[in-house]
Design goal:
Helix content: 25-40%
Strand order of the largest sheet: 2-6-5-3-4-8
Shape: globular
CATH class of the largest domain: Alpha Beta
Number of strands: 23
Distance between the termini: 46 Å
Strand content: 15-25%
Structural class: alpha/beta
Radius of gyration: 23 Å
CATH architecture of the largest domain: 3-Layer(aba) Sandwich
Length: about 500
């Protein structure tokens, strides 16, 4: 065990060292993330916990306590302990996961048990060198901008001094520390909106790829005991994630795609490193990209479940959402990138679903927060129902989606930047794209240009409805270039032009 958090008995202690050079901590589209040992330290995790503690106290919800979860990354359990010790020093009870859990289980615990909020130690799909700090609101959704502004303000105002801490063992002896296993309650909760027995009874073979993350074991366990055959790869803990980023897109999932291409499976289901993002592949090993998954899930809800509540979609999501909305009479709301915008909008509008390009999907009948396990189970239910309707194999069901919702040839490229020069690159490129916006792209006229409301990018629409988006990541030092087009060739042309914008800046 690492010595830093301190687990011995004793009284409250105050770490008094002063570090004027402490870096700023800013929560991006989904929490704060940084490189372990550089900015991501026990000291800075405690600063984040201090912000959470003061927000909870300001809400008058101290007695409700805070739930704490952690993933399988390097030392995540010890970083969670460090956060807990700060909360305990403020007389806030904590409930800590018994083992690494998917991020959404903190959301579930907050909703189910009525905690003041939740904290999750994870860097999600970031490189293995990073770790992070996510906050869940009382509704289970990602912490809103209002909550984060308070937390960031506390961190900024307390710069130079460390928060007080209370040793975990001392607080545990005083009855202020609980341990939880979310699985039994989560299974019961799933049963309110999904027929697990129906899924278990399906005569199908499914490959599951959890990418060594904290979602490993969950889908096989949920589907055990029936006719369905589930084989999961990469179940073991590996903080290096096998050398890939634990994001369920190519090339990170190419091993799983190769297994599917070899035959013997009807479907592949994918998860990211903390299992709040979902993905899929068909029986041929063809990756079903994130925007297609959004379309499939919306189609499932309107066609097979008969729902007509609104849908929330981010600026970088598929145009199929709008076309499906028109077809089925469903209102669509668009938000900036990040579930800190999507979740609150779902709650405000009573949405049946919210989704973002990164593979995160939340559901009104479940949680207003991303849940990759639940989304994968809904995809499985969709494909079972499509097979019953005669649209099978899985590739035929995907084609049916495009028959009614139009084409979606999509790809995203990430242009990495040096951490030190990233802010200057961002500032320069934002000015240049605004002042010298292209009038044509890939030989077509640009008919509309949208400056993102978060001031982190621009989206360009061309004549046939295809689009290019250039956006700066809120969690990593990189520029994301997205394109969704009517053909694969047009998509590639748009991406190439977007890439040139960035590299020439």
């Amino acid at each position: 065990m690492l010595p830093e958090p301190g687990s011995g008995s004793g009284t409250m202690r105050h770490v008094s060292e002063h570090t004027p050079s402490q870096p700023p901590i800013v929560f991006g589209t989904d929490g704060w993330r940084a490189r372990i040992g550089e900015d991501y330290t026990y000291e800075n995790v405690r600063r984040c916990a201090q912000g959470v503690a003061e927000w909870v106290q300001g809400q008058g919800t101290t007695a409700k306590g805070v739930v704490l979860g952690y993933d399988r990354r390097f030392s995540s359990e010890f970083f969670a302990q460090a956060a807990a010790e700060v909360l305990l020093a403020h007389d806030i009870p904590v409930s800590i996961a018994q083992q690494a859990i998917p991020t959404q289980m903190t959301s579930y615990e907050v909703v189910d048990k009525g905690f003041a909020c939740g904290v999750m130690i994870t860097a999600s799909h970031n490189p293995w060198t990073d770790n992070g700090f996510k906050i869940k609101s009382p509704s289970g959704a990602a912490a809103s901008a209002d909550i984060l502004s308070v937390v960031e303000g506390v961190i900024r105002d307390r710069a130079g001094a460390q928060p007080p801490t209370r040793p975990l063992a001392d607080a545990e002896a005083a009855g202020l520390v609980g341990r939880f296993d979310p699985y039994p309650g989560y299974v019961e909760y799933l049963g309110r909106s999904l027929d697990l027995e129906r899924l278990k009874a399906a005569d199908m073979s499914v490959l599951v790829e959890p990418l060594w993350g904290s979602g490993a074991g969950w889908i096989p366990r949920l589907l055990a005991g029936g006719r369905i055959r589930v084989h999961e790869i990469h179940q073991e803990r590996n903080p290096w994630f096998g050398g890939v980023n634990p994001e369920p897109i190519r090339p990170n999932i190419d091993e799983a795609l190769g297994i599917l291409a070899g035959g013997g499976y009807d479907l592949g289901l994918l998860l990211d490193g903390d299992a709040d993002r979902a993905g899929a592949a068909d029986e041929q090993g063809t990756f079903i990209h994130q925007l297609q998954v959004m379309g499939l899930l919306m189609y499932y809800l309107v066609e097979h479940r008969g729902l007509r509540q609104p849908v929330v979609s981010t600026i970088n999501e598929t145009s199929m959402v709008g076309r499906l909305g028109e077809r089925y009479g469903v209102e669509v709301h668009e938000t900036p990138v990040g579930f800190k915008y999507v979740g609150p909008k779902m709650i405000e509008t009573g949405a049946m679903m919210g989704g973002e390009e990164s593979g995160g999907y939340g559901f009104g009948m479940h949680l207003p927060e991303r849940d990759g396990i639940y989304a994968d189970l809904l995809l499985l239910d969709l494909f079972i129902r499509e097979r019953e309707a005669g649209r099978w194999p899985a590739s035929a069901a995907v084609q049916h989606l495009h028959d009614i919702a139009g084409p979606s040839f999509y790809l995203r490229t990430d242009v990495h930047a040096d951490r030190a020069t990233y802010p200057a690159l961002k500032d320069r490129l934002l000015v240049e794209l605004r002042q010298h916006a292209p009038s044509t792209l890939a030989g077509q006229a640009v008919v509309r240009t949208d400056a993102l409301s978060t001031n982190d990018g621009f989206k360009f629409w061309i004549t046939d409805g295809s689009w290019l988006l250039v956006r700066f990541s809120g969690t990593e030092p990189l520029v994301r270039v997205y394109a969704e087009a009517t053909t694969a060739e047009l998509r590639d042309e748009l991406l190439a032009e977007g890439g040139r914008f960035v590299t020439s800046a």
